[in-house]
Amino acid sequence: MTQTGNKAGMPHLILVDGSGFIFRAFHALPPMSNPEGVPVNAVYGFCNMLTRLMREHVGTHLAVVFDAGRVTFRNEIYAQYKAHRPDVPEDLIPQFGLIREATAAFGVPGIELEGFEADDLIASYARFIEQTGGHCTIVSSDKDLMQLISPQVEMMDPIKQKPIRAEEVEAKFGVGPDKVIDVQALMGDPTDNVPGIPGIGPKTASALVSEFGDLEAVLAAAPDMKKSKRRDSLIEHAEAARVSLRLVTLKNDVPLPVPVTDMAVQEPNEEALGDWLDRMGFRSIRHRFGLGDGKPLAQAASAAAMRFTNGGSHSVATPPPEQVPYSGYETVTDLVTLERWVTEACVAGVCAVDTETDGLDPLKARMVGLSLATAPGRACYVPLLHEGTLEAPVGHQISVSEAVVALEPLFTDSSVLKVFQNAKFDILVFRGAGAAPIAPIDDTMLISYAQSAGLHGQGMDELSKLHLGHVPITYDQVTGTGRNRIPFQQVPLDKATAYAAEDADVTLRLWLKLHPQLRTNKALALYEGYERPLIAVLSDMEQTGIKVDAHELRRLSENFEGRMATIEKEIHSVVGRPFNVGSPKQLGEILFDEMGLPGGKRGKTGAWSTDSSVLQELADQGQELPEKILAWRQLSKLKSTYTDALLKQMDPATNRVHTTFQMAITTTGRLSSNDPNLQNIPVRTEEGAQIRKSFIAPEGKVLLSADYSQIELRLLASVADVPTLREAFALGQDIHARTASEVFGVPLEGMDPLTRRRAKAINFGIIYGISAFGLSKQLGISMGEARAYIDAYFARYPGIRDYMDERKTEAKAHGYVVTPLGRRCYVPGITAKNGAQRSYAERQAINAPLQGGAADIIKRAMVRLPHALEQAALPATMLLQVHDELLFEVEKDAAEETAALVKKMMEGAADLPVPLVVETGIGANWAEAH
């Protein structure tokens, strides 16, 4: 466990609510026993949690806190306290002692004290840490502990692996942590037999405390309240509420049984821990903890045998992953065998899952089969819709509906991690098949992407070759290629199993290899904070889609087609004869062979290049033909890419189109969109506005657009520490006018629009490492004048020049640059010998932290917004993300309130020296809202 403190030299104490976790683990896991026949499901769950905690969460000090007994000082206050709790299940009783043994085996102090609850000990240690200036993380989801949360104390849900801070407390109780006990005292707690005030529930209690301040103030105000049952109950049961307050208030001055200095994190004794895990039969935990094992495989398997109450048996012993062959996978064709695999996965605590489909659109594809892997080399394939042939008949298969029912215990078990490669795709496929929601999950594609964006591709085959040294079976190898390709459902089951089960096996091995590296590569917060949570958000957005106006799209297609025909006639008139305007070869011959225009370059095939840069160069020289060709191409692209494509991709039942968001493509962390691509619609052209007009809200609803204003410039002002730019943003000034005033020495009042335009070009150009040549072309000025502008800019803002030089130096030293929120963006080519390639990489190094920082910030907002909208009971749905813009569909009557909340959440997604500003718009279509 990495040892870090909240501040230099200050302790970071992690306290595990052992008693709370024991019961959750016992009820979450199926019954199991160790080789001696003792029940150990709660022990197993506890060890899994402790293993993960020690492997993934930082802290300088660590302890597990237990309840010493059921009778505490609270029974003296109220004899019936916890009197209604049922007896402890018989199978759990022998596990209490084993869990204490487990704590000792892991080298972690176990703390308990007669007469006090574990919560009181946790409160006392947390208070001690606060007083010493340290930080405390309480591993628990117990609502009674939420009263302890402060800037120095937070909680972490051990199942969901999510932090619980003041924001989450307020979402749950309607008040901050300091008022939780007042709300609890009013509402009571039937679980612990805390009386409270009869008839007052959570909402009423939080409303009363919010209005009056605390319990005593509520009780004092009761006689003056309007006559009602609630008023009478408050008066009649006031003393019961006061008693309840004493019961729910945690005691934070308990004598500390173990000094904090004795809780310093230490590595466990490997031999002692390994022996104890072997005695329990927990071979999978031993393997995940990375303990060596010199025992022969047969002996290890015997020691690791675990007996289940249903009479089945399974060995979870495995040799090191690199020694396990990628073979020996099982084909599962009956429910009994599938249920055995589900049980095995639940026991393993982590399971890789993969699907095989008959298409690449997860919203339309059918699930042909699925695969599971519970350990390296231990995987199966479950065919569901295979067709077979006369030569290779399929025989019996489980139906899709039977499979999803059998998988439900695995998918809904919060103590079992389900690992995917590109989880969003598989989750949507399972959702379409009617499967239960899957949680918790990990995604090896995103785990890799969070720490290596831009360094290499994130596909499974590439990651396997890179990290495992293994070349997986390819899709082409089992389905064939070209005309000989067959659908996957016709692949013989032996080949299908070898291919599909291997995918799950590789995914699990990648997880074992890559997940521990998140911490060492400083990418854990990035992955856990918003890459992984974004999977669920984007899945919902893709499934929802956005409505389009089919009539408007057809009208636009006809309009574009008519204008193209007109321009084509004009092109033919200029040339003097007809030709295929869409043929680059014919166009090149006309431009450079027949017309003899300058600047022609031949490609490798010998044909003239006629890409947009070549045509734009000629158009800038006043050449009529290239200018018309560019106009024709623009309309052709808009027609084929958008108006025609959207009509084909629209679901005729709903008139909605469903884009796919690619999460691991870009170097900077930006999302990309395809099928259809909704992120490249021209923003500033009339045609782009017309296309956006075809995206509409259903009847009774409107579209809400929320767009970050100049976010990359704001990030530049923040990270480059430019006081004048910071001041301009803080005062809400026109940043381009302020820049022009600073750089060119002209007053803000009555500024010439041309001067402002030049400052704007420099402001945005600097973000992309613009050169004097590029600026001269953009502004239509000489190279010398452009160079003078840039020199003046850097002279006025030397911090920006320093920032640019530092980013280039950083990229050359490490191969990557880092965004303000900690994302690594790799920059291949930064040390290339080729000057053009190196210059391009240097521009990437300058821009990536800014573009990537903007991507990180909007992702943060996207993760937080669905919960915020739900908590506010606002009828709004997030539909699209287009770079710095989010688009929502919302009920008309709630549009203004939703806009205010979205603006607040987006502007609060990051704490920067420069304020973030979000501009919102509301309309019947996207063009109006944007």
TrEMBL record:
SMART domains for this protein: 35EXOc, 53EXOc, HhH2, POLAc
Catalytic activity: DNA(n) + a 2'-deoxyribonucleoside 5'-triphosphate = DNA(n+1) + diphosphate
GO biological process: DNA-templated DNA replication; double-strand break repair
Database matches in InterPro entries: 3'-5'_exonuclease_dom, 5-3_exonucl_a-hlix_arch_N, 5-3_exonuclease, 5-3_exonuclease_C_sf, DNA-dir_DNA_pol_A_CS, DNA-dir_DNA_pol_A_palm_dom, DNA/RNA_pol_sf, DNA_polI_H3TH
CDD domains: DNA_pol_A_pol_I_C, DNA_polA_I_Ecoli_like_exo, H3TH_53EXO, PIN_53EXO
Gene Ontology terms, MF aspect: 3'-5' exonuclease activity; 5'-3' exonuclease activity; DNA binding; DNA-directed DNA polymerase activity
Domain 5'-3' exonuclease positions: 10-266
Pfam families linked: 5_3_exonuc, 5_3_exonuc_N, DNA_pol_A, DNA_pol_A_exo1
Domain 3'-5' exonuclease: residue ranges: 329-519
Keywords on record: DNA damage, DNA repair, DNA replication, DNA-binding, DNA-directed DNA polymerase, Exonuclease, Hydrolase, Nuclease, Nucleotidyltransferase, Transferase
Ranges for domain DNA-directed DNA polymerase family A palm: 688-894
Enzyme Commission no: 2.7.7.7
Subunit composition and interactions: Single-chain monomer with multiple functions.
NCBIfam families assigned to the protein according to its UniProt record, in alphabetical order: pola, PRK05755.1
Function field: In addition to polymerase activity, this DNA polymerase exhibits 3'-5' and 5'-3' exonuclease activity.
Family classification: Belongs to the DNA polymerase type-A family.
PANTHER family referenced in this protein's UniProt entry, alphabetically: DNA POLYMERASE I, DNA POLYMERASE NU
Name of the protein: DNA polymerase I
Organism: Acetobacter aceti
Gene that this polypeptide is encoded by: polA
